[in-house]
Amino acid sequence: MSELKFTLEYPSEIPGAPDDFLLPDVVRSVATAAETAGFSAVAVSEHPAPSAKWRNNGGHNTLDPIAALGFMAASTSTLRLLTNLIVLPFHNPYQIAKSLTSLDILSGGRLIAGVGAGYLRSEFSAVGVEFEDRAKLLDEALGALAPIWTDPSTPLSGDGWAATGELWLQRPVQDPHPPIWIGGNSRAALRRVVAHGAGWMPLITPKMFASVIRTRAIETPDRFSEILTGLRAELALTGRDPDELDIQIVLPHTDLDDAAAVREARDYLSDMRRRGATWAVIHVDGTSPESAVDYIARAPDALFG
To answer: CA dihedral defined by 120, 160, 100, 215, rounded to 10 degrees?
Structure first.
């Protein structure tokens, strides 16, 4: 059983975090602090046109994930760059493959392509995509990404898009292509993991929050274990090695000055590791850049040991 790896959720993603986290010097300092402290990855989500209602009811500031992670790549050398997650239905498969390839090239092969279906109906409307088509579009894009990356000269086509002749595209640095991690708790998400995923990003969360993000609730570690056991069996049936699948869970924010909370967090991480988790997302103190950097520096001794 390998040690857990840790992903820093970039602090601008925390509801209530100040706009300071969007400043270039702050982005650079947070990313370098995470690498120095021993985090294995940093993650940024995608929200190209979120509504004010979403923002005012628990939403957060956002940066374009390709731009933000590319900027962080220039400030670091080993930190993995996780899109958590790219909403594939927003994008033409060739366009997003190009963006992700560029990030993988410019980072020296550090991209992890976390992808999913999305859930904000108004955001789909803003970018001109039918909300009801998101599952179909996600499946189509997932079916196209690997072929675009591994056999870029062969033209592909789909719903409303078509390459009409031989193409000339750069391939990613990672061979055969960057790992694709699938987000979501639904049975469809698990099917996509089996078909396309090198990783699964579930959310262990109450039914109320799961309904907000339009996914099935996984409310307890025991339920997580049950679903993961089934997923591993499905992988084995297709000839894949279940032990090669990365599983990223989320650690709720922990007050590092609260000894009982730290013990509870460490016990939770140890338990989830035994259940099969290989990565854990860490939410730091987002009240200020200084607080975030201090939390990042303290997290290894408090949580990772």
So the answer is: 30
